[in-house]
Amino acid sequence: MITFEDFRPEGSLPVYRQIVLYIKRGAVAGSIRNGDELPSRRMLSALLGINPNTVQKAFSLLEEEGLITSRAGAKSFMTLDEERLTQIRNDLLSEDIQIITSALRQMGITKEEALALISRFWEEPR
Amino acid sequence: MITFEDFRPEGSLPVYRQIVLYIKRGAVAGSIRNGDELPSRRMLSALLGINPNTVQKAFSLLEEEGLITSRAGAKSFMTLDEERLTQIRNDLLSEDIQIITSALRQMGITKEEALALISRFWEEPR
DNA sequence: AAAAGTGTGTTAGTTGAGTAATACGGTTAG
DNA sequence: CTAACCGTATTACTCAACTAACACACTTTT
After folding, report:
1. For residue A91, which of A24, A7, A10 has the smallest C-alpha distance?
2. I need a surface site. Which of A83, A106, B37, B97 has the fewest CB within 10 A?
């Protein structure tokens, strides 16, 4: 069962998209595995203090992408194979890294400065 | 005169916020300097193909933060001192780096992997 | 002085994200 | 079996990010 313990919505990204990201990142990290049960729409919405429809929107997206399987009346569960997983990993990584490198370059930061900064900030609590 | 040549709105961030970011990053990079003239609200909105009110919102934010000065009838111009600049630099850097480190850690990426990835992706054209 | 360009303010509409309340039928545990 | 839980669907509402079209007063330019 996926607990959503360490899920904390933040930033300007819509919550339903953050839920999708949380699942994808967990899958890449290996903490979310094929066959894992998801909490019900109602339970999760109560847990996160958001509307059931917002959770539904996130789960719909995940199902469209083939990452979860749902049937009316029963709980949803993860459907992941290795190929899909490495694809997701590559997508997420290239997107995130493209964003940060673009931002840092626009600020005139050199590659060496960037690496030094990220190295220094890696263990920060925040 | 700030040209907005290399400004390309993208992503889910509101355009008026992207304009603010563009100015701040340019200031940090040194390509935008104290006293520099900004294009008028109307000209910039025509250039970017967006509504004048969207530009106005961006410029209002910049003025609230003291980064530009405006007087009715005349063009707006940058008002930057060294202290404010280093503060902006620190704010932008810590925010961006916090976002990327958080994302990579959630995917189970180690510090060494992260540095290797960013190093490899740095020169990517995209 | 007059025209053109400028910052500023107002009102109104559209779109998408998210909230809210409710209903229906399928699945599962007691 | 049946009650509790579940996925799914519908309708209506709020709110922020824009879009659109003006009007007014100030400045710079000619």
Report:
1. A24
2. A83
Listed residue (A68, A96, A67) closest to A84, CA to CA: A67
Q: For the whole model, what pTM was predicted?
A: 0.92
Q: Which of residues 41-60 of A touch strand C (CB under 7 A)?
A: 50-54, 57
Q: Which residues of chain A have pLDDT under 70?
A: 125-126
The DSSP-derived string for chain B is ----TT----SSS-HHHHHHHHHHHHHHHTSS-TTPBPPPHHHHHHHHTS-HHHHHHHHHHHHHTTSEE--TTS--EE---HHHHHHHHHHHHHHHHHHHHHHHHHTT--HHHHHHHHHHHTT---
> What rounded mean pLDDT belongs to chain A?
93
